[in-house]
Design a protein that fits this description.
It contains eleven helices and seven strands. Strands 2-1-3-4-5-6-7 form a seven-stranded mixed β-sheet, with helices on both faces. It is an alpha/beta fold.
């Protein structure tokens, strides 16, 4: 039975992982220093462990802390780990920025949830409303072994599937590819575009369109637009008028060189800026 130490177990992300890992067959230890986090864990009848006691004997140490704190936390935790153990992070940003504490005799594994797809079908309303994932709705995950033997990838994926459950599929990629996914694709690009769409909705509401009408009309169109663009509807296409509007809109809204956000130097600057 593998021993796992979860650092930041009572935090926002830590609690999500805790609820899944506490039901697993792993020998779990939970490390939390904030009073609020300790109280949340106590509600689950979980007793907090001291990091300097459980980290040195753990086979896997999960760092469930915010990116802005991860460099400092890794510098405090990783030196305590035993040789041959695995450290897991939940995001590639700090590693890609070169701010993660490194040891040659420890494996580094990164796992991040995709979150449930907009095209998911779930059998219950409760599962359908699990937008974040990790509770009822199935999701895929992406995993990267930054350093270490293949056997440690297998262990890391097993832990990741457990803590992000229910997981329908795990994709094995590189740390660099993961940074292209996040922050570049889903935060720098997708979040920015969607925030502008929401801002556009607020603008037409300010110009007199009823809020409920604007929201329902927009979300309904987003639903079908996603289905067409991502090939969920075989042979479905936009109308000629919609394509003309799309072409005109792109020329107004986007710079010709917008794809530079995926260039290595640009991605590196993105992860530096957010960590």
């Amino acid at each position: 039975m593998k021993k796992i130490a979860l650092i930041g177990a009572g935090g926002k992300m830590g609690m999500r992982l805790t609820r899944n890992l506490m039901k697993s067959s792993f020998e779990m230890s939970y490390v939390e220093i904030s009073e609020a986090g300790i109280e949340k864990l106590a509600e689950l009848e979980i007793q907090v462990s001291a990091g300097d006691e459980v980290v040195p004997v753990a086979d896997v140490v999960i760092l469930a802390v915010p990116d802005v704190a991860l460099a400092k936390v890794s510098a405090a935790i990783i030196p305590q780990m035993k040789s041959g153990s695995v450290v897991m992070t939940l995001d590639p940003a700090v590693a890609r920025a070169g701010r993660l504490f490194l040891r040659e005799d420890v494996s580094y594994f990164i796992a991040h949830p995709s979150h449930p797809s907009v095209f998911n079908w779930e059998p219950t309303p409760e599962a359908q409303a699990d937008f974040f994932g990790g509770t009822l709705a199935k999701q895929t995950i992406v995993c990267a072994l930054m350093q270490g033997p293949d056997s440690d990838y297998e262990l890391g994926e097993l832990v990741a599937k457990t803590m992000y459950a229910p997981v329908s599929k795990a994709f094995k990629i590189t740390m660099e590819q993961m940074a292209l996914l996040e922050p570049a694709l889903v935060e720098t690009l997708s979040s920015s575009c969607l925030d502008l769409v929401r801002e556009g909705m607020e603008e037409i509401i300010a110009r007199g369109v009823p809020r409920e009408a604007a929201r329902e009309f927009l979300l309904g169109h987003i639903n079908i637009q996603l289905a067409v663009l991502f090939k969920e509807l075989p042979n479905a296409v936009f109308s000629d008028a919609a394509n003309k509007a799309l072409t005109r809109g792109r020329s107004i809204l986007f710079k010709d060189d917008w794809k530079q956000i995926f260039e290595p130097d640009n991605v590196l600057q993105q992860v530096i800026d957010i960590t």
